Amino acid sequence: MASQPPLFRDPWAKREAWRKHPVFSNRAMFSSMFPGLGIAVVAFTAYVVVDSFYGKSHGQGHGH
């Protein structure tokens, strides 16, 4: 008599396993959607801070 797997075994489990892989988690998907967003935000913030201090120290506006 041959040993058979249980009847409740999912035949599609191997094909669905990729959905539970950590590469496809929500956090990984979001971070790969915008790869340079963090660096861009930091660079833009630094630019705005430097520009505002530089503008105040020279007493000039932005052409207004």
UniProtKB/TrEMBL annotation:
Belongs to the complex I NDUFB3 subunit family. The keyword Iron-sulfur does not apply. This is NADH dehydrogenase [ubiquinone] 1 beta subcomplex subunit 3. PANTHER family: NADH DEHYDROGENASE [UBIQUINONE] 1 BETA SUBCOMPLEX SUBUNIT 3, NADH-UBIQUINONE OXIDOREDUCTASE B12 SUBUNIT. InterPro entries: NDUFB3. Accessory subunit of the mitochondrial membrane respiratory chain NADH dehydrogenase (Complex I), that is believed not to be involved in catalysis. Complex I functions in the transfer of electrons from NADH to the respiratory chain. The immediate electron acceptor for the enzyme is believed to be ubiquinone. One of its GO terms (cellular component) is mitochondrial inner membrane. It is a single-pass membrane protein. The chain crosses the membrane at residues 28-50. Keywords: Electron transport, Membrane, Mitochondrion, Mitochondrion inner membrane, Respiratory chain, Transmembrane, Transmembrane helix, Transport. Its main location: mitochondrion. The lineage of its organism: Eukaryota, Fungi, Dikarya, Basidiomycota, Agaricomycotina.
